[in-house]
Amino acid sequence: MELKANAALVIIDQQKGILHPRLGRRNNPEAEARMLEMLGHWRRTARPVIHVQHLSRSEDSVFWPLQSGVEFQQRFEPMAGERLIQKQVPDAFCSTGLEAQLREAGIGQLIIVGVATHNSVESTARTAGNLGFDTWVAEDACFTFDKADFFGHAHSAEEVHGMSLGNLHGEYATVVSSAQILSAD
């Protein structure tokens, strides 16, 4: 594992709405701390940071644009010089220009963190891998929520998280811990 000098940290949907209690029980309570450690490292080493913000098309979403849930959490507020990608669907590549921006900047390696593991993280990582980017997902810098499967069987956030990471690892991305990523520098 080698972390490239221009590896981009992609922080997905760290907005106020993701903390809303109506989303239910989540896993990985230390995820934000891991994300912030990585963000600090990226800023100290002057690597590119990409903040992804979800602007929902659904009025009942925690990310509906006309309310405070759509705003970035203060601790994840983009700094000058960091890229902002606004999306309306889970995949950060869909209709956003992200791929073109990465290609233009010569960025081939993406480190993905954020929420929710089974939704925007998995969707974005799948596309990144399919497009040929060297894609890493930091398993301890993501989280998700309890969710029922198609047949109505309840699954814990830990199970949903694990299955989503299992879907990605080895096919679309390399799933590793934040410590492994930071030590690869």
UniProtKB/TrEMBL annotation:
CDD domains according to UniProt: nicotinamidase_related
Enzyme superclass (EC): hydrolase
Membrane spanning residue stretches: none
Keyword Protease on entry: no
This enzyme's EC code(s): 3.-.-.-
Highest taxon of source: Bacteria
SUPFAM superfamilies noted in UniProt: Isochorismatase-like hydrolases (SSF52499)
Domain spans labelled Isochorismatase-like: 7-177
Keywords of this entry: Hydrolase
InterPro entries, sorted: Isochorismatase-like_dom, Isochorismatase-like_hydrls, Isochorismatase-like_sf
Entry GO MF terms: hydrolase activity
A Pfam family the protein falls into: Isochorismatase
Name of the molecule in the record: Cysteine hydrolase family protein
Species: Pseudomonas monachiensis
